[in-house]
């Protein structure tokens, strides 16, 4: 999991930056805390540059899009937020990848409350999901304090460790949800998930068993030419077949039913051989405490395809070989509309095969 940390102070000896660096030290190996240090290089926000933002703004947006959560620590200047953090947020106001992002706000100056309140108001207006349990005021003296001083304060270490736990909890929540297509509360899914977990020593063993069940016991609808077309996880389980997208819904549901966060990933691949046309291929990412996000592909093995579960080594079904093929960024909690559409609006597997969705390369959207 990745937490993008933003400090609203450009000062070399900034307490806010020191807090974020201390947090990076305290995070477990499965959580990367990435401190973006380019906020001082951002030009003042100008809406005219929305369609072609300067490279540092584009870089900030990429980091935001790929982060599971954001963590902001920023001082108060004259009862307001600093221009540094407000300018950075202005560059993110119209950015789609920011909406619904879980965000925590740390206040390192107990006497300052105007900036903290203003920052929260701005973030809520920008449709961020404020993580209240991780948004705390740290009882720090106002004297200059460095990372090492912070890490030597047991109370601060305990508070910052709690912040990481709460951010992780909030960031993983959508990946444990039961929904229309990942219906992990369906009785058949619950029963199968319990059967797979029976006798397992830990979450890694449960995840491996769920993966192998979907890879080996659920047939790929096109490989085996099997109807009906399935979409919901429960349908895939009951009928025992599905296209890659549908199988990924079932694997996500079985993992979530076992309390293991799981999401959906997509690749853009050629449909057959190494020639166009292209289509989306659906797979999964599972969140393992020891390793963080780990991608797995349970579409089903066949000659030339040997996907496996061997964390942290990734062993997917298909490598990216052609220049227009790609691993699409991001881990989705829910299937994109194009995937739901193809699986719910067609009655036969031939119709699905002839209408496989592709990515909009210009907008990088599915
Ligand atoms: C220009 C300026 C204005 C400030 N205004 C306030 C203020 O309104 N309220 C407050 O509590 N502290 C104020 N401070 C103090 C800072 O919040 C404090 O020094 C904080 O530690 C700075 O964060 P940093 O160490 O991360 O740079 C101000 C500091 C500066 C430099």
Automatic annotation (TrEMBL):
Record-annotated Transglutaminase-like domain positions: 193-298
UniProt KW Transcription keyword: no
Domain spans labelled NADPH-dependent FMN reductase-like: 1-128
InterPro entries per the UniProt record, alphabetical: Flavoprotein-like_sf (IPR029039), FMN_Rdtase-like_dom (IPR005025), Papain-like_cys_pep_sf (IPR038765), Transglutaminase-like (IPR002931)
Keywords for the protein's UniProt record, in alphabetical order: Flavoprotein, FMN
Domain of life: Bacteria
PANTHER family: BLR5614 PROTEIN-RELATED (PTHR33490), CONSERVED INTEGRAL MEMBRANE PROTEIN (PTHR33490:SF3)
Protein name: NAD(P)H-dependent oxidoreductase
Organism: Methylomonas rapida
Lineage of source species: Bacteria, Pseudomonadati, Pseudomonadota, Gammaproteobacteria, Methylococcales
């Amino acid at each position: 999991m990745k937490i993008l940390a933003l400090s609203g102070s450009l000062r070399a000896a900034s307490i806010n930056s020191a807090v974020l660096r201390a947090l990076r030290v305290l995070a477990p190996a499965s959580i990367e805390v990435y401190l973006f240090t380019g906020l001082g290089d951002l030009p003042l926000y100008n809406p005219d540059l929305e369609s072609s933002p300067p490279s540092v703004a584009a870089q900030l947006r990429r980091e935001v899009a790929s982060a599971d959560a954001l963590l902001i620590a920023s001082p108060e200047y004259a009862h307001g937020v600093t221009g540094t953090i407000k300018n950075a947020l202005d560059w993110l106001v119209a950015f789609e990848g920011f909406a619904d992002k879980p965000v925590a706000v740390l206040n390192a100056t107990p006497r300052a409350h105007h900036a903290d309140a203003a920052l929260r108001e701005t973030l809520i207006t920008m449709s961020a999901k404020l993580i209240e349990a991780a948004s705390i005021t740290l009882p720090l003296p106002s004297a200059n304090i460095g990372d090492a001083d912070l890490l030597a304060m047991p109370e601060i270490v305990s508070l910052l460790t709690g912040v990481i736990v709460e951010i992780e909890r909030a960031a993983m929540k959508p990946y444990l949800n039961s929904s229309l297509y990942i219906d992990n509360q369906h009785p058949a899914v619950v029963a199968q998930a319990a059967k797979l977990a029976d006798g397992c020593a830990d979450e890694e063993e449960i995840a491996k068993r769920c993966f192998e069940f979907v890879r080996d016991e659920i047939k790929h609808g096109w490989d085996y030419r099997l109807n009906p077309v399935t979409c919901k996880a429960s349908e895939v389980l009951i009928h025992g077949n599905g296209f890659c997208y549908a199988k990924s819904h079932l694997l996500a549901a079985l993992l979530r039913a076992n309390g293991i966060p799981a999401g959906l990933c997509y690749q853009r691949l050629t449909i057959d051989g190494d020639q166009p046309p292209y289509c989306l291929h659906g797979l999964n990412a599972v969140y393992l405490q020891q390793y963080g996000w780990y991608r797995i592909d349970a579409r089903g093995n066949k000659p030339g395809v040997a996907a496996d579960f061997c964390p942290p080594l990734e062993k997917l079904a298909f490598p990216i070989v052609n220049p227009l093929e790609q691993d699409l960024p991001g881990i989705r909690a829910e299937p994109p509309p194009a995937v739901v559409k193809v699986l719910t609006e067609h009655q036969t597997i031939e119709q699905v095969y002839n209408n496989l969705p592709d990515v909009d390369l210009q907008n990088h959207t599915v």
